[in-house]
Amino acid sequence: MSKRDELIAKYASDLKDKCGVNPDMDLLTKVTIGCGPSIYNADAATVSGSDASELATVKNNFLIKKLGLKDSADLDKAIDAVIEQYGKSNRNKYRAVVYYLLTKHFKKESVY
């Protein structure tokens, strides 16, 4: 099993256990691949739910640039909802899981 496959399995388990979501493994794999090498860097692989600049990066680089959404208050609400769903007290919020949940939230699976 490759390092990436191990990480995808870890993300799937987070989705099931912490978010109560049964993941679409094909989409999760594509989202993980879309994150590129950041998934191998401990700091870049996670999203800090309390860091405003980190959340702005998720909004600008993922929601607006990658998914092609227009900047609006809905984007901030969706990020908050996903962070809430993942669990605010959960320290390690994996970027791939957050991106997967946002992709599902906006029904943008077609981007992948």
TrEMBL record:
Which InterPro entries does UniProt cross-reference here? Answer: DUF2853, Jann4075-like_sf
- Could you identify this protein by its name? DUF2853 domain-containing protein
